[in-house]
Amino acid sequence: MNSFKVGLIGLGNVGSRVWHNLLTHKELLTKKSGKTIEIKKIAVRSPQKALKVGVPQERLTTDWKEIVDDPDLDAVVELIGGIDVPYEIITQALQKGKDVVTANKALLAFHGHEIASLASKHKRRILFEASVAGGIPLLQAIQDGLVANRFLMISGIVNGTCNYILTEMTNGRMSYADALKKAKEMGYAEADEKLDVSGEDSAHKAAILCALSYRFWPKVGEIYTEGIESVDPFDIQYAGELGYVFKLLAIIKKHQGSKEVEIRVHPTLLKKDHILSSVSGSFNAVIIKGDIVGDQLFYGRGAGGDPTASAVLSDLVELARYPYVECAPRLFFADTESEYKVMPISEIVSRYYLRLNVVDKPGVLASIAEILGKKNIGISSVVQPEVSSFAQGVPLVIMVHDAKEKFFQEACLEISRLPFLKCKPIVYRVEDFHVQGE
Ligand code: HSE
């Protein structure tokens, strides 16, 4: 039996589960790939921790270059996270004729185009199933199973940490800080958890999804990104009373006939009976609308050691099965010119939840309605929740019909200047997953 020799760089939460599951599933994976997949060398920062995971001393090194330079290895698995060092590892590995597996969404979002060119120049493969939605084989589905489709929409929950935090806050079980702490303990969060809660991690994943579905790499800075750090429990609770649930969504839409792709990440209100509303904890779920297949839902564990290791192992099996050939599955492309560009956030159309803190006196609502009316923005409901104690003024919650973001933001700016406003308007988008021309 041929062997497929792998060097692993990084033995943290994911790397240690790749090591463990490869051992416990050795026979199965050998049968399925036709080769014995062996991790010959592992680069780690702390050999002591690695020994605790059960890795024999002789396979360990503290120098990743030993792995990249080893002519005997077929593939390198990069699982250290961050950007600069992984960039060096991956580019050098490709240049030295090795295939690569990575879970590094940040690196791909910033350098995916260049890395794809390098892989194709050196006739190597780079697979990264674990970079988006953990254990869900979403990238395989986009590249293979749904290959015949034009994609109208790819949207959903792609960050397990944020979904866990919002779920706990919604159920009233934990505060934001406690839920974040727990998500870190459970191994869902990034080493720098700001990447999760700021929405950046979801934006990186959205860039990858966009690249694979539209052959177009958006610049990360062009992706409108809002995190969950400032979501107030009051809004979660009040949206709940109105029949909505808060989710951090990555939304990618391409309206028919448009060369602009909507690509954005933000906390979003979903109707409680929408299927994504029931996705809780660290689970991820993504809806793909293909022009032939219609709606598809992908659901599963989106974060954590074992789900991510499952995706890494699937990439390794694929590399063991299919070495580079011109028509190997899931070859990473690097188109230089794309017919698409990112739609500015000001151009999107959405429904909105607007919460204002106002002085409780007659005429307030009329002034606000007048500003919205002038911008042709229709109000679908207005509620002034009765709250016994509210730090600043009284809350007024207004739901509005579909409006162009630009006009809605202009209206909010005008509203924020009204003398009876006690703080900046709080705005959340409400999503119904409509795509024009569907
Ligand atoms: N920190 C990421 C998340 C890990 O919470 O989704 C999986 O990419």
What is the oligomer described by this structure? Answer: single chain
So what's the overall shape? elongated
> Which CATH architecture of the largest domain is right?
2-Layer Sandwich
Gap between N and C termini, in Å?
A: 51 Å
Bound molecules: L-homoserine
CATH superfamily placement of the largest domain: Dihydrodipicolinate Reductase, domain 2
Task: Work out the number of β strands.
Answer: 17
Q: Radius of gyration in whole Å, from Cα?
A: 24 Å
- The structural class is alpha/beta
Describe this entry's structure for a reader:
The chain is an alpha/beta fold and 438 residues long. The protein has three domains: 160 residues, Rossmann fold; 163 residues, Dihydrodipicolinate Reductase, domain 2 (2-Layer Sandwich), CATH 3.30.360.10; 86 residues, ACT domain (Alpha-Beta Plaits). It has 15 helices and 17 strands. Strand 5, helix 6 and strand 6 form a beta-alpha-beta unit. It is elongated and about 80 Å long. The model has no long low-confidence stretch (mean pLDDT 94). Bound molecules: L-homoserine (HSE). L-homoserine binds next to helix 8.
